[in-house]
Amino acid sequence: VIISSVQRQAKHSFFWQFVFHTYTTAFTLVNGNGTPKTEEYSLQQKQVFLGLGAISYSACVGALPLSFVNRYTLKSSLMQLIVRKLLPAPLFGLTSAFTVAMVRSPEFDNGIEVMDRNGRVVGVSKKAGEKAVMETALSRAVLFGTTFFLPEVLMYFVQRARFVKNPRALGPVRMFVVMSVLAGMLPVSFSMFPQCGEIKRADLEPEILSSTEETEFFYNRGI
């Protein structure tokens, strides 16, 4: 996260964002819902291919603004502000959510198990799978979007107020700020939605409802 936030060259930015999204995609793959299964193809192989595609696409999208600025030598202060300060946060948030949705797409394609309040599995629901993936993608977007946005705001005020008078000290200060924001946002992101998600009866498929009279159902959201 720290190295990706300080890159100024498109090639370096692409490489470090590729590393960043590789890690987050692997984390997503390991901590998803394990319900989807198929005999027609290797599900894990499909998720790996989807993950590699999402990683490459996200790294390209993240590095594209820098490539555009460097190629056309756009040196105006407004353009530099937009590309280097304002764009990274929403781009990292969106691409992080995108990689989650891609690597866990089998969950809303094939569905995930839903349980009653006693823990008994009552069926496999695509709607629950979609809800689980979208909630996780949103929490990941908030986590990394905030982590890349808030330090820029804080560093602006630090420099404006001249709290740090030695320019060489700005690097370590930025690193500390990014680490602090990331550490603070991790529990916020993980607690946005409960690990054991809840879905109402009206939101489930008819074939599941026909087998039970329960009104509330639960599923494993993943991380």
TrEMBL record:
* Record flagged with keyword Protein transport: no
What Gene Ontology cellular component terms go with this record? Answer: mitochondrial inner membrane
- GO molecular function term, any single one: monoatomic ion transmembrane transporter activity
Segments crossing the lipid bilayer: 48-69, 81-103, 137-158, 170-193
Keyword Coiled coil annotated:
no
Subcellular location(s) per record = Mitochondrion membrane
Name the UniProt key words of this record, in alphabetical order: Amino-acid transport, Membrane, Mitochondrion, Transmembrane, Transmembrane helix, Transport
Biological process according to GO: amino acid transport; mitochondrial transmembrane transport
Q: Look up and give the membrane topology term.
A: Multi-pass membrane protein
Q: Which InterPro entries match?
A: Mtc
Spell out the family assignment given in the record's similarity comment. Answer: Belongs to the sideroflexin family.
Q: What name has this protein been given in UniProt?
A: SFXN4 protein
Instruction: Please state the gene responsible for encoding this protein.
Output: Sfxn4
